[in-house]
Design goal:
about 200 residues; mainly alpha; 9 helices
Length: about 200
């Protein structure tokens, strides 16, 4: 499967991002159709793992993420992988905010569920997990090992490949693979342990 950032020539998006960072409004106009399509595919892929009947649709998610991204006026964009790395953070925040609002609306009637799928599963029989529990566990992981936290964010929330994640973080693909395996195991223990304690 192609990674999230492979469909357009990287140099085109990188050049436009850099021109936009330098104040060229025409670059943003040219950039929009290139990154919007990628963001929509990313959002659709992520939401396909959500619970049935999820009230946030991919178009709404991508619009919110896009609006937040174009509001990042002080960012010095390095390349398209950097852009989609920041997009991963935006998407995570939007989904967590949506989950919190949904949970509050239900007034404690149950947490928003998502399938952690094979990306974070330590076994094939992995149960559905609470997005808020995942977010809490990911925040704890980031305090212990910020690099592993970013790897999970980029791989799970942005759908970046091992190579794309390595490019964003300026580390080797081998390091990404090793940390990805360790982070998945750590998160699995944290989330399933917390779920068992709350049962």
């Amino acid at each position: 499967m192609k990674g999230a950032v492979e469909s357009q020539p990287p140099q085109d998006v990188t050049r436009l991002l850099q021109d936009w960072s330098n104040g060229d409004a025409r670059a943003l106009e040219a950039l929009m159709p290139l990154v919007y399509g990628e963001l929509h595919r990313l959002a659709s892929r992520y939401l396909s793992r959500e619970r049935p009947g999820h009230t946030l649709q991919s178009t709404a998610l991508v619009h919110e993420a896009y609006l937040r991204l174009i509001g990042q006026r002080d960012v010095r964009w390095q390349n398209r992988s950097h852009f989609f790395g920041v997009a991963a953070q935006m998407i995570r925040r939007i989904l967590v905010d949506h989950a919190r609002a949904h949970q509050a609306a239900k007034r404690g009637a149950g947490a928003v569920k998502l399938s952690l799928d094979e990306a974070l599963a330590a076994s094939e029989n992995q149960p559905d997990l609470d997005l808020l529990a995942l977010d809490d566990a990911l925040n704890r992981l980031a305090e212990i090992d910020p690099q592993q936290g970013r790897i999970v964010e980029l791989r799970y929330f942005a759908g970046l490949s091992i190579e794309e994640t390595a490019e964003v973080l300026h580390i080797s693909p081998a390091t990404v693979k090793r940390d990805w395996v360790m982070a998945k195991a750590w998160l699995f223990r944290e989330i399933t342990g917390a779920a068992a304690a709350g049962a």
